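Same chain as my last thread, 105 residues:
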Amino acid sequence: MDQVSTEKRVIMAREVARKWLEKHSFAEYRFRVLLNGGDANAYASLLKGHRDGRVALTKVAHIPDLGVREEVGSLTVWSSNKQGMLSLRQYFTNRGMDTSWIWGD
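reply #2:
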């Protein structure tokens, strides 16, 4: 194989990869909530109920793609909805809990 045809294949592969990534990738916002002795299971159930539309949280927008993971003494939450995550962060900070939010307000 000559050098020109190898370079052309690499360029074509990069173009295919770029198009696939543009089509299948999206921004995701993730943060951890330190519960200060709160029950991680209870908060996880509350957030899953909010995601599924069974529970309404004060001043928190509906986040249909909300992910929740329970950990010892904390929760990790994630979504592609930045505004919804901002309102969720505010919900927890209003209740005296610390978060690992790193994006601007």
